[in-house]
């Protein structure tokens, strides 16, 4: 039977491909959550928060510290870290980024770059460059789905990410602050004239972005490693997703996140670890170069 | 009658479903001052942008000195001799008034000395002499308008497109500006102005073109155009011309609506 | 804009040239050589970012190209470093032109231009880290051969003076450029691109020329760095550190000024060394990243309080206070 081994190899390849695909989708959901925070800030302030990646790193270290020092399970930590990072994001925008930027977009870019350098290197000074991870009892639990073995923490992350996105959508659609945010994002001057406190709304938006990161960090840590530079990888991934999905678009961020998760997983499969990352950057560059006008709307 | 310098043929611009300019045509003869007027949202700015190369028309053509320039990008039209000013004036804040004007002067002069000398001359001609060394960011609105004019003029244009160069000025500043524009024409530059200040249009222009809802509804000498019923309708609303005509026949009614 | 800067340049270069004659400390000489290399990279950045207003977050792409070209041309092709240097600058300039061509034709500006340059630098870093030709993760060693003909000097002061000569060249280039038609057009498009186009400025061409020149100068810094350390890896050559330093120095020193990058680089790196020493003593050992924390804070402070950099502050202190122009107001 000369065809037998070839056929089995093909089956095996399909299994590997499917599991890479599933893995990509699950990681992609968390990417989407990270991108959600970024796209939210872009949608309202029309600027890029360059400190997004460093804030994520800080959140991941917070999860690690909560687990390692206080024995708090990462999923429980969501309840503590989310409000904490909301407050942090709020304060950063209200008291640092806003006042230091004098309302200029390129200044915001530079100030958030400065913040990312400070945060990243403060973490480096505090935790050194070692890579850390946490051990949770369910860390290696899997869910069997036919021939696929899906890691439980990733499945949880997948569904939790969509839950958070839904909550955020509900907040934007049905609450007063959500309406205020949408009003400011559409017409800042008009919103200010009708009595909406624009600075407060900006700060809340930054807070929500940081809160998304806290949740993402809690969902990531059971399966990911953290070191002071880990945010760099995530931030470009998040930028790619946001650019791909359309700046300021929430559904765009979700779909973009899933696409990028899959692309990363597949290019890791075919190009190996060291070159795998390159796929993301190339997509990022291509998207920016080929469809910039369509992606940026009026404010290019 | 002099030769036409600028000929706009059936220019159309659509943004999605909206037709901003609809087969607009106009001719500007060399050595004249032509006006482009119309109610807000008539498409004047879009038409202006297409003539200067900042917007690409959906269809139609722009001819300058008999040559089709429709496909030329903005900077090449300036090189061909079409200069424009902007309604919202934004001086190059990092440069002095003289250096601002020199950016225009550099178009036909590579050397710094010649460009600065030309900038000086143009600056004085528009009344900016005392302010040449000041940082451009510190100027008043009236000063900025003159700077905007000087920068465009420094490119040695044959045709100067002025976009609401009088908007935002007070009556005495407008009175000061009008002779400046006249002198530019006397210097051999043909001018097309978009203007809201009617009094200025009436006193400056040899010919006026009226755009309403993207269409060219009237062209001719200022007084004739002002009496055109279609123009009155466009400005004052449907039925306005009939009402005015009626009130004119009716003794005792005021002359002007 | 500065008027004739020839005399200040001459004075600055003479002072810097005399420095190693007085101070013989090897540490100081090493520091100064490194600081001048960073200043050179920053002078490159300043041409595009300071004068042209196009903020690149990825000048590592040019620095690294210059560095790897310098190393590889010697190691793989046996070229003499004096001949390799201009080639390295040309290659860096070519990379700058290519990135500029893609990015500016796509009309990327502001944050998008910053991000796309960053992404290019990262792509180069990953490639250099994976490709055997560039030495992959192990890096690239340039053999030690202490001969002047080999651009390696017994007396380290000679190399310092060589770097200084490049810095002096970049200062003169910047000063000349600032007074030229090209410089005026570059500043014009920084301030208002549409207004510049209306005055006949081919903005794409001017931006392309600026990024090409900028990349060439920064590539020279990379080449000098390679020759100074005789070792390269991807994280050094294409690492984000140089992108940040090259951008930070002009912002701290004075954006779009002739001396801004030099003053900024010396101030920045000096302060970084001092804080490393001070905090190292405090904690009884080196604290990684402490200098970068200081850099980040300085960047925020400079944007918040000194939009015209140290030179602007200095101006305000010694001269009649000028009415504040505010940041760059975006309409």
TrEMBL record, chain B:
Keyword Translocase appears in the UniProt entry: no
UniProt name for this protein: Branched-chain amino acid ABC transporter ATP-binding protein
Signal sequence, start to end: none
Record keyword Transport present: yes
Molecular function terms from GO: ATP binding; ATP hydrolysis activity; L-isoleucine transmembrane transporter activity; L-phenylalanine transmembrane transporter activity; L-valine transmembrane transporter activity
Keyword vocabulary terms for this entry: ATP-binding, Nucleotide-binding, Transport
Gene Ontology terms: biological process: D-alanine transmembrane transport; L-alanine transport; L-isoleucine import across plasma membrane; L-valine import across plasma membrane
ABC transporter domain boundaries: 6-238
Pfam families: ABC_tran (PF00005), BCA_ABC_TP_C (PF12399)
Species, as recorded: Prosthecodimorpha hirschii
UniProtKB/TrEMBL annotation, chain C:
Top-level division of the source organism's lineage: Bacteria
Transmembrane feature ranges: 7-23, 29-48, 60-77, 83-104, 111-138, 158-178, 206-226, 246-270, 282-306
GO cellular component: plasma membrane
InterPro entries per the UniProt record, alphabetical: ABC_transp_permease, LivM-like
Subcellular location: Cell membrane
A GO term, aspect molecular function: branched-chain amino acid transmembrane transporter activity
Lipid bilayer topology: Multi-pass membrane protein
Protein keywords: Cell membrane, Membrane, Transmembrane, Transmembrane helix
Name the UniProt record assigns to this protein: ABC transporter permease
Native organism taxonomy: Bacteria, Pseudomonadati, Pseudomonadota, Alphaproteobacteria, Hyphomicrobiales
């Amino acid at each position: 039977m000369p065809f037998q081994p070839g056929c089995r190899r093909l089956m095996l390849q399909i299994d590997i491909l499917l599991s890479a695909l599933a893995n990509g989708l699950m990681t992609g959901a968390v990417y989407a959550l990270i991108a959600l925070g970024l796209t939210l800030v872009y949608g309202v302030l029309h600027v890029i928060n360059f400190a997004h990646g460093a804030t994520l790193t800080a959140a991941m270290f917070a999860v690690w510290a909560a687990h390692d020092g206080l024995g708090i399970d990462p999923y429980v930590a969501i309840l503590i870290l989310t409000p904490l990072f909301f407050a942090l994001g709020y304060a950063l925008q209200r008291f640092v980024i806003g006042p230091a930027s004098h309302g200029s977009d390129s200044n915001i870019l530079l100030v958030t770059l400065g913040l990312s350098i400070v945060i990243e290197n403060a973490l480096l000074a505090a935790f050194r460059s070692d890579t850390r991870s946490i051990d949770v009892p369910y860390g290696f639990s899997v869910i069997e789905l036919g021939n696929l073995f899906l890691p439980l923490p990733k499945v949880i992350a997948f569904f939790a990410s969509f839950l958070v996105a839904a909550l955020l959508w509900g907040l934007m659609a049905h609450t007063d602050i959500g309406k205020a945010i949408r009003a400011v994002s559409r017409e800042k001057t008009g919103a200010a004239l009708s009595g909406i406190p624009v600075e407060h709304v900006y700060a809340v938006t930054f807070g929500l972005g940081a809160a998304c990161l806290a949740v993402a960090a809690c969902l990531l840590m059971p399966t990911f490693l953290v070191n002071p530079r880990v945010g760099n990888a995530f931030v470009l991934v998040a930028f790619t997703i946001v650019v791909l999905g359309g700046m300021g678009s929430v559904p765009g961020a979700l779909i973009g996140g899933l696409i990028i998760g899959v692309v990363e997983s597949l290019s890791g499969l075919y190009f190996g670890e060291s070159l795998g990352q390159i796929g993301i950057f190339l997509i990022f560059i291509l998207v920016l170069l080929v469809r910039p006008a369509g992606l940026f709307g009026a404010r290019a | 009658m002099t030769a036409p310098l600028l000929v706009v043929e059936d220019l159309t611009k659509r943004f999605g479903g909206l037709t901003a300019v609809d087969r607009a045509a106009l001719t500007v003869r060399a050595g004249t001052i032509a006006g482009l007027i119309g109610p807000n949202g008539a498409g004047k700015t879009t038409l202006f942008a297409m003539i200067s190369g900042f917007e690409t028309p959906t269809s139609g053509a722009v001819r300058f000195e008999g040559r089709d320039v429709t496909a030329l990008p903005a900077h090449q039209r300036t090189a061909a001799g079409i200069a424009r000013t902007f309604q919202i004036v934004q001086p190059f804040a990092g440069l002095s008034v003289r250096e601002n004007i020199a950016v225009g002067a550099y178009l036909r002069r590579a050397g710094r000395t010649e460009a600065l000398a030309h900038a000086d001359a143009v600056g004085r001609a528009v009344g900016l002499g005392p302010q040449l060394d000041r940082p451009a960011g510190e100027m008043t609105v009236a000063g900025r308008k003159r700077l905007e004019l000087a920068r465009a003029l420094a490119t040695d244009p044959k045709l100067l497109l002025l976009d609401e160069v009088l908007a935002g000025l007070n009556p005495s500043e407008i009175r000061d500006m009008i002779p400046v524009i006249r002198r530019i024409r006397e210097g051999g530059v043909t001018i097309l102005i978009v203007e809201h200040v009617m009094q200025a249009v009436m006193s400056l222009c040899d010919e006026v073109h009226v755009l309403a809802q993207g269409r060219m509804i009237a062209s001719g000498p200022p007084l004739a155009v002002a009496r055109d019923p279609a123009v009155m309708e466009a400005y004052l609303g449907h039925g306005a011309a009939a009402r005015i005509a009626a009130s004119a026949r009716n003794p005792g009614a005021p002359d002007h609506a | 804009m500065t008027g004739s800067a020839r005399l200040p340049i001459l004075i600055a270069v003479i002072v810097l040239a005399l420095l190693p004659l007085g101070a013989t400390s090897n540490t100081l000489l090493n520091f100064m050589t490194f600081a001048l290399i960073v200043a050179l990279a920053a002078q490159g950045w300043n041409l595009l970012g300071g004068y042209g207003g196009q903020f690149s977050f990825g000048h590592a792409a040019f620095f690294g190209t210059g560095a790897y070209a310098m190393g590889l041309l010697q190691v793989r092709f046996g070229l003499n470093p004096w001949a390799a240097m201009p080639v390295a600058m040309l290659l860096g300039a070519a990379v700058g032109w290519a990135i500029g061509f893609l990015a500016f034709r796509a009309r990327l500006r502001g944050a998008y231009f910053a991000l796309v340059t960053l992404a290019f630098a990262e792509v180069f870093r990953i490639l250099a880290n994976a490709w055997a030709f560039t030495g992959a993760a192990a890096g690239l060693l340039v053999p030690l051969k202490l001969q002047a003909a080999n651009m390696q000097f017994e007396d380290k002061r000679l190399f310092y003076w060589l770097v200084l000569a490049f810095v002096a060249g970049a200062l003169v280039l910047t000063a000349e450029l600032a007074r030229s038609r090209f410089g005026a057009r570059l500043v014009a498009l920084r301030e208002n691109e549409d207004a510049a186009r209306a005055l006949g400025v081919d903005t794409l061409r001017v931006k392309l020329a600026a990024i090409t020149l900028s990349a060439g100068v920064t590539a020279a810094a990379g080449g000098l760095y390679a020759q100074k350390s005789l070792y390269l890896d991807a994280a050094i050559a294409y690492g984000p550190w140089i992108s940040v330093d090259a951008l930070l120095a002009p912002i701290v020193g004075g954006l779009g000024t002739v001396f801004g990058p030099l003053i900024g680089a010396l101030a920045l790196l000096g302060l970084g060394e001092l804080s490393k020493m001070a905090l190292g003593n405090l904690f009884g050992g080196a604290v990684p990243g402490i200098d970068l924390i200081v850099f980040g804070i300085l960047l925020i402070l400079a944007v918040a309080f000194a939009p015209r950099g140290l030179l602007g502050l200095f101006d305000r202190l010694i001269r009649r206070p000028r009415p504040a122009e505010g940041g760059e107001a975006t309409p």
